[in-house]
Amino acid sequence: MKNTKQIIFTALLGFCLSTISCKEDFLDNEIKNRLTDETQWTSEGNADIFLNDIYHDLSNKWNSPENLDNFTDDNDAGFYWRSYSWKQGIVDPSVNQGSPMDQEYNTSATVSNTTNHATDYATWSAGYYKIRKCNLFLEKITENAANFSETYIRQRTDEVRFLRAYLYSELFMHIGGLPILTKTLDRNTMAKEELYNKRNTFEETFNFITSELDAIVKNKALPVKYNNGDANAGRSTLGAALALKGWLELYAASPAFNTANPPAGADPNKMISFGNNDPERWKKAVATNKQFMDTYGGTYGLFPDVSALWWEKNEYNSEVIWDRQIVAVIMGSNYEQYGGPVWIDGVYYTWGNYDPTQELVDQFAMANGKPISDPTSGYDPQNPYVNREKRFYDFIVYDGAPYKQDWMAKVDTIYTRIDKVKPSKNQIDFGTDDVSNTGYYFKKKINPLKPRGGASSGQNYIYYRYAEVLLNYAEAQNEVAGADASVYSAINAIRKRSALPDLPAGLSKDEMRQAIRRERRIELCFESKRFYDIIRWVVAEDVMNKDLHGMKITNTSPNDNKGKWVYEVVGLNHPHVFHKKMYMNPVPQSVRDQNKEIVQNPGYQ
Amino acid sequence: MKKHFHPRHGLLFKIMRLTFYQLVCIGLLSAMAYAHNTPAQDLLNRGISLELRNVTLEEALVKIEQKAKIRFAYSSDLVTMQRAVTISANKEKLSFVLDRLFLPIGIAYRVNEDQILLSKSFSRINEIPAEETKKTTMTADVSISGTVKAESGDGLPGVSIILKGTQRGTTTDINGKYQLDLPDANAVLIFSFVGFVSQEITVGNRTTVDVSLLADTKALDEVIVVGYGTQKKSTLTGSVASIKGGEIAETPVPNISNSMAGKVAGVSMRPNGGQPGADSPEIHIRGIGTTGNNKPLIVVDGIIRDNINQIDPTAIETISVLKDAAAVAPYGLGGANGVVLITTKRGKTGAPSLTFSSYYGTQTPTYYPKLLSAQDYMRLKNEAYSNENPTGTQLPFATDLIENYTSLNAKDPDLYPISDTKKLVNMHAPMQNYNLQLSGGAEKIKYYAGLGFLQQKGMFDPVRYTRYNYNLNLEAQATKTTTVTLALIGSIENTKSVDDAVNATNLFRNGFKYIPIRSLYYSNGLWGEFAGNSPVGILNAGYRKNTNNTLLTTLAIEQKLPVKGLSIKGTFSYDPNQRTEKGWHTPFYYYTQNTNVTPYTYKREISTSEGGAPAFTYLRQEYRKTQTFSYQAYLNYHNSFGKHDFTGLLVAEARNNTYEIFSARRNNFAINVDELDMGSSNKNDFDNSGTSSTGSQIGYVYRVGYAYAGKYLFEASGRYDGHYYFAPGKRYGYFPAFSVGWVMSEEDFIKKSLPMVDNLKLRGSWGKSGNLAGTAFQYLTGYNLYGNAYALGAGSMVQGSFLPNEANRNITWEIATKTDIGFEATLWRGLLNIEADYFHEKRTGMLLPPAVTVPIEYGLGLADENAGIMTNTGFEFSLGTQYKFSNGLKLGINGNMSYAKNKMVQIFETAATRNNPNRSRTERPFGTPFGYKAMGIFSTADDKNDDGIIDSKDGYNVAQFGVLHPGDIRYADLSGPDGKPDGKIDANDETVIGKPVAPFLSYGITPTANWKGFDVSLFFQGSALASLDIRQFQTIPFNNNNSNSSYEYFNNRWTPENQGARYPRATQAPYANNTQASDFWWTSTAHVRLKTAIIGYTLPKSVIQALKIQSVRVYASGQNLFTVSKLNFMDPEVGYTDRETAYPNQKVYVFGLNVTF
């Protein structure tokens, strides 16, 4: 008995001691799924991981079911989400977080990486979320400079400064003057004044962005361009910096901003305009775009086939200046789900979100280069789809258009006509189904390799391309000097690529302006450019405040099709209201609720 | 002194660490040390359970010999062996039983070897211990007799009558009569009988003493399971509600959390979808007291666990719901939201009892939307077109087409289809449950074993839930002072759902989206499409399967110590859980029809289901493993000294867990075999991920109680608790509670003046408890790493990292300060039971993101701060009555009601809302919906100039949303930026438009009746003061890209002829003005429903004895049988996140059988 108890007692004591000695602190647990501040900035490789995330934050606009063209007269997808509200004039700082362009799920007041903010256009919260990352990167690589080579710091600094300038430019184009933050805000160390910043004026913001871009170009720490196969292809380049600068200068020199009387109304805080008109601003735009053509013209140039510009096999081609990288499936795009004919070969393929309007279609010239409004053009309203310019056939799917992509076994002919004998699934239906309400689809930018869905497309999203530089130059130079030879040369280069004859000689400045605008609308259609153009040219109120049109095609003998096919341009009857305040987006109400220093844009009070 | 005790010295930590391990080790090991065998000399300590009524003493002795495995030795002239005796013992020591049996009839006994020798105690004094001899006076000069009766007037046999101060006495005979010789007239007799209140009567000079004994409600005193122990209901000072397992087991629900609300006061719930295997409602105890985690803590068999859904209801002995601070304090930082304690069944001494129970039945959705027919769909579409284009001529559907549609359909159903997605739904899905329970025990070992099988099929074929339950409980009396318990509770759950790329809710969405003028199936049996989608295609595709293996293991050793009333216990539990998931997606197919050729031709195509589903095949597998270890060391004390009763409890508890997850996926299967190895070998089609984590918690629990004379009750309890979530130095907290009780019914003034009061207790408690909100390591700055961030160069993917938010080193738990005042009363011997509580809670330190304290330009999420304050106040009331009529009819009714309403006292809010009384979130309940105030629908009369548009020309100068028409919703212009109406509806006009989704008020009423083997029980459950947003497919026409609408909308829509309509005019797409958040759409979900109805019949003894079976009961039961609600087209308890696309709640009818062999 005694022995047993002793043995047990000894065992007990031994066990207790062993348990105590083998654990330091029972409550200490290691966190295994995050990097510490130290590890993150310990090497170039690790720091690059952080930078990769900033690139990741670049908007993948392929995946936006409503791209900016839905907010213009080029496209009418019917009663579609945000653009449906926008076209009713429902734009308000407190509605949809003040972001009339963005999808509902991108508009929360605070953004996190898990929020899908890769498709938005101009959400204040998402923009500053990304800008902070840039500022943090710049601060951290300076703080930890010892861990990096000089070349690395030089290159990455300019890369990130470009990204930051680009992110600012996106907000700037929608909202105007912005608080310019170049370091991370810290509520624990900063005074109230440092934390709560005012908006800089339109001009200050513009100057900040362009001077940053200018500095990057002058530093030459970055390559002019990356080509296919380069290990770093996809990073910021000098070309991207200069092209962005040239575009912003053109944007800011335009009538909507280069004025004392902005169309949205009195702008006492100079948030949406310079507050004066200065022709010198056009000259800046000329100079920068010319600089691009002159300096980088050998590296960049027009790609021979505009319809193949976006294809995966042509990534990094000579025309691509600034694009977002996409890899099929893993980080792929769904664009093919949204655009193109709804029914292909009798199969439902797309949501039919991009339906070109008759207004856009009418802009395409005849093959002879003459606009259809020209009585000598040879245009036949009852046979409208013959002898049109090449880009019409490249970009637009119309009634009777042959449709063939690489993945398709054979050509399908798309019919949008109302045919009671052989009804087509793509038949114009005025809103019963996803099929087009205008009688048109488009095929520009569509990946020929894969039909749709499951993020199966790997085409990069191109933000800026060389044709735009030419158009920018032509437009600015025409304003400065009229239709001189350099203007003709820039425009004709684009026309030539698409087999159009040169513009007629001797155009007046105004005629040239019209020609450039038409050229720009056609060449850049469905690239989310038209929206900025109708704003900066102050034409939105004219083109938006009216009904848009589609093409209704019927047979005079509908039961046997033995009659004549009649083409009739019909109104779409969708309510459109464009208020003048809509020349600029509002600052979201939540932004002003949290920072009293932020003033609102005109018209939204 | 600060309110929270944070030790600062490392030394103290170290001491505590040492102490803890020592305690646990001592608990476990010393218990083992004592667990050695002792010689079998101590027969008298053997436990015995025996129920004998009115048998002869001879028979009784035989029975005891059998039960206790002993032998009696006595001479037959000792006593009259035919004397009637009654024995009632439940797990009692033999010595106690023998004392009760022999003392009254003057028999003494002693143990000799394995025999018990009986002798006459009066005549053979030498057999009685010396001290007791003095008390026994021998002279006998008075003889008295009488009858002992129960209240009913029936004679009570077997009542023991003892002469006070002696061992002399007798028992009543079969008619309740007795006869006894007494020494003198001053004698006091004690009449006692199990289940009755003992009475002392001074004989005086009477020779006949008749006594009527009162049933003792206290003797039936319930033992309630509380935190880390049990307590008697009579002396409980905390607020604890208890549900018997049996009440829950007969409800045909797989998971008990669905049947708790309304059963007891203080429990409310909000269901969120009824999909088999995923139908757990949110349960709240005393409402919602925090903006953070509001789930109650679940404790199974004394160990903190989270397995409420996996426990087989039939294996449950009791459920205790701990509500006030006194009750939850032992759970420290886990207790603030209330605690649900589930205790599973244990074996009982006695012959093995085998019970088989089963039920089988069907499930039907409580509500199913009535979608528009083909013709009405087209009519509504045309109406919407004309509403939007008054001059338009392109009517979507020709009028003659609509009118002739049915006849056209009859002629050519493929060209003019009519479809109804309801046909895809299984409206009568079967459900079955089988269960086998074995229970029994001998003197030293008791066992309970159960085996269960449940299968619940879903509304769609692939959807089903299958569960196997197994459990085993062994309790061994290892030595006379040592008890060892081993408990295993296991479950295997298989949940199957539709294709991995979608959820079952997608199918309900598909049901709304599929328009009735498209073929769901063509006449040849192939399935069609609408907008490239087919629900049939989804149902014919892949699957998602979950297997969840759970095992809860507990080993406990309890050792009584040599000090009276002191025992120690060591518990070790190991809960492994393995969860695997296999998700298989095959492309969704549908068939297109070419009507341009005759006969029509069909082609199979791939659908993307609104873009969500890949056009390729993939397989995804996931493996998760969780292991939880708990170690507890208990020190228990209970002893009475006269009128003083002391209890004490000390527990050291440590818990730690490990978690691992691993997942892999391949895309593009060329061969359709659902195994990873069969997938594409292209590395771009591979994906995998995995991570792991660990966690730990440590706590020291105490409870001390003191009761004086069973009247004045005092208790203090609490926990010193530590958790790994927080930064070193911030990890420990102290949560104390105090409670008092006054059993007024024990006071003489109550006894005298209010004799109908059997029990009346007032109690009050105050204390603190914690709530672990947020997530682990919020105190650390860390960059989140993720894969596939970007592609550089040749398209190879690179990783990315980002800072999710700022860290907060000071982050800690929420603190709830709870006060409770309650009373309990039992009147008229159990005829009426009342319990009522008032409570108030203040939750401080609620975790809130202080986002609004920095400008949005800050660009980084801020770490949560312990800054929020919320109060939660309410009351509970329960009432029960039961009455048995002389003809055997037993009626009972129990009802309870709970009300709890919270208020946010301090939260982060911008000045814009805070300073506007309409918009302020502060001072309002959490989850209060905000929106516009609707003023009804514009009528045709409002369009004064008759241009179809309502604007300033008609004298309406408020800018709403877009162009306004008759039939659109009108909003109140409550305010503007300056606080005055500004002619514009925007955020400044926001106001409260309803109540949160979780109800403030819940109640339940349970009437029961028993008569001659029949039993009927109904359970009505209701809730009120909650609302739901009903903007959805049923109420908004063409809610999503021309989707179908319902008759709820169609029959109640605005038209010029129906100006007073419930819903706005039809538009072809949701019209911004008419779909704003407003009180137009927030609707009360107040309802009462017959949650359960059961009618059963227990076969009479005469029948089943012939079958050699102990009992047989057959029953029919139903769940959610009918509902009374203002919402007459949808379930008021519909899943509130998915609403119309949520898996519907089910009405269940089952037929069941219980047999005990």
TrEMBL record, chain A:
Residues 62-228 form the SusD-like N-terminal domain. It is found in: Cell outer membrane. Keywords: Cell outer membrane, Membrane, Signal. Its main location: membrane. Transmembrane segments: none annotated. PROSITE patterns: PROKAR_LIPOPROTEIN. Residues 319-604 form the RagB/SusD domain. GO terms for cellular component: cell outer membrane. Belongs to the SusD family. This is Starch-binding associating with outer membrane. It comes from Dyadobacter koreensis.
From TrEMBL, chain B:
The keyword Signal does not apply. Transmembrane segments: none annotated. Residues 233-339 form the TonB-dependent receptor plug domain. Coiled coil: none annotated. PROSITE patterns: TONB_DEPENDENT_REC_3 (PS52016). Gene3D superfamilies: Carboxypeptidase-like, regulatory domain, TonB-dependent receptor, beta-barrel domain, TonB-dependent receptor, plug domain. The keyword Transport applies. It holds the Pfam family CarbopepD_reg_2. Its main location: membrane. It is found in: Cell outer membrane. Keywords: Cell outer membrane, Membrane, Transmembrane, Transmembrane beta strand, Transport. It comes from the Bacteria. It is a multi-pass membrane protein. GO terms for cellular component: cell outer membrane. Belongs to the TonB-dependent receptor family. This is TonB-linked outer membrane protein, SusC/RagA family. It comes from Dyadobacter koreensis. The lineage of its organism: Bacteria, Pseudomonadati, Bacteroidota, Cytophagia, Cytophagales.
